[in-house]
Amino acid sequence: MEPISHIESIGAADSRPRVSLVRRGDKPFVPDRRPGFLVLALLSFAIAAFAQPGESAQDWPHFGWDVSGSGAPSADMGIDSENVGSVVRQQIPLDGTVDSSPIYLRGAMIEGTSHDAFFVTTSYGKTIAIDANDGAILWEYTPDVYRSVAGTYRITNASPVADEDGKFVYAAAPDGMVRKLAVADGRPVWTTAITRLPTREKIASSLNYFAGRVIAATDGYIGDAPPYQGHVALLDAKTGALLRVWNSLDSNVHELLEPAAYPHSDSGIWGRAGVVVNPADGDLYLATGNGLWDGKVDWGDSVIELDPDAMRILGNYTPVETQRLDEEDRDLGSASPALLGGGLVVQGGKDGWVRLLDWRGMGGSLPHKGGEIDRVPTPSGGRMFGAFAVMHTEFRTWLFAADTGATCAWTVGDGRLTLQWRADFGGTSPVIADGLLFVFDPVGALRVYDTVTGRAVATLPCGAGHWNSPIVADGRIALPEGNANRHLTTGLFDIWRLP
Question: More exposed terminus of the chain, fewer Cβ within 10 Å: N or C?
Answer without folding.
Answer: C
